[in-house]
Design goal:
This protein has a domain at 1-30. It has six helices and two strands. The protein has helices spanning 2-8, 10-20, 36-106, 112-116, 135-145, 178-186; strands spanning 125-126, 132-133. Strands 1-2 form a two-stranded antiparallel ribbon. Strand 1 and strand 2 (132-133) form a beta hairpin. Helix 1 (2-8) packs across helix 2. The longest helix has 71 residues, at 36-106. Residues 169-178 have a biased composition (Basic and acidic residues). It comes from Clostridium pasteurianum BC1. Pfam families: Phage_scaffold.
Amino acid sequence: MADLKKILGEELYNQVTEKLGENKIDVVSDGSYIPKNKFDEINTQNETYKTQVGTLNGQLKDFEKAAKGNEDLLAQIETMKTDNEALNGKIKDITLDSAIKLGLVNNNAKYADLLTGKIDKSKLQLGDNGSVIGLDEQIKGLQEGYKDLFQSTVNPSPGANPAGGGDPVKTDFRNASKEDYQKEMGKYGIHRFF
């Protein structure tokens, strides 16, 4: 207001201040004044930026939620992969155990369960067709090392019949009487006929 007093002079300045009352007047020739339209433009731009910042903050929160969900999902996927690998390992073990027992039984092992522990699974591989690579070699090694635990594959004499053996009596009921048929079936506990 001091600048206005210099410009108007003491007497005119006093008249203006009396008319204004409590309102103040500033001289804005020093460049600190912003025209109303410029102020409105900047204010609108400021409000636009505030809105954009609010929108971006909302999106950021959404992304944080989505990222958290993805972390959980990724953790679940990793857990599933681990579980899947464990199950594949169990399936491989079961397949190898079955193949070992079957291989031992097919090679006339007397005690397949006992000999199963003698097979080194780390040297076995599953083939694409389900075969077990390396099993035959290990079984042959067991047959040589534990001959007593395998039955020999020698067939008895082709012409000999064991004691009490012989050809079983073959009964042909096509020409048998009803009484003979009932008598024969009675031996097997069948007493009712239709």
